[in-house]
Design goal:
377 residues, mainly alpha
Length: 377
Amino acid sequence: MILGIIIAHYVSLPITILPVLAGMVVVALLLYKFANAQSVAIVVCCLLLGMCVMQYHQQTTNQPQTETRLDRSRNFFLQQREQLLQRFNDSGLDGDAYAVVAAMSLGDKSALTRDVKSAYSVSGASHVLALSGLHLGIIYMLLSLFLPRRRWPALSQLLMILVVWAFVLLVGMPVSAVRSAVMLTIYGVLSIGRRNKMSVNVLAFTAFLMLMWNPAWLFDVGFQMSFMAVWAILLFVPLFTSVFSDQYYMEHPWVAKVWGMVAVSIAAQLGVAPLIAYYFGQFSTCFLLTNFLVVPAAFIILCLSIAVLLFPPLAYLLLYIVNGLNASLNTIATFPGASIGNLHPTILQVVLIYVLIVCCYLLIERIKPIMGSTPSR
């Protein structure tokens, strides 16, 4: 499907793809007795589906747009966001502290200065300024603490999903936040049926839904980095955590927490490093140290941001923490070799790097049983 979207984006198609797709679906159904041939037909159907949705998107974008109910809802929530941002201002937050709080809590990056962006980029902390799974995961976790999930699981999950989507509308529906909200929605639905809630299949289904809604998201940098980070986490974290046995984790719980954060940081960096080098021309070597600092800080800042909206006097505590975080990241950014610059890989090189990463994963999965380790699932 992704390949079909790319083809339709760069090549002008002389015919309408929908009738061809419908005919290919019929062929795939008729080949039910021939498994291999039907598999090939299904692959072709997915390719044509990607071309079809991209062709339809290109046709609709060239037509005059009318305001939809979703647009009206988004505009309403954006107006509410402006009021919340004004409450941050009124509570005493200003300067770089206000800019960071606005970006982390409400997705407004307009106040971020070039110096702040540079410090966060060089130190490898830019991801906390973009609303993503980290921020929505914190909100989802906070909601789960206050709602009776065991007594009314379906109702609790429904309320949490509604609040998450309301927050996504409030912050302007950035692609990374939409991806996280879709995954949390699937997670909530599957958790009611006690099914496997997070897997590569869930990630692929999320991508499928988002690209069906707007295939142009495929070319968004945030979309690519968000999905590649989660893809790498789902693949490599089980490999990294299997270095120690379950018994060792039970005897040393602090090792499980520290190594878990290390595993997630390294896995996410594996997923996004080629894209960062391609789009931004640099690679942060201090990302591991930075994540140990910014992840707990982001949790505290997000919680305090909610508290400040209710109790403005807490703004002084929030201001102190944010200024401390900014000062720490500025210090890390000045370390010798904190960032490697002037990286200009080609698209082919980026693809080959990801092929190498996948090959390393498959090789490790093959040799783990030989070494007496249980394969990850």
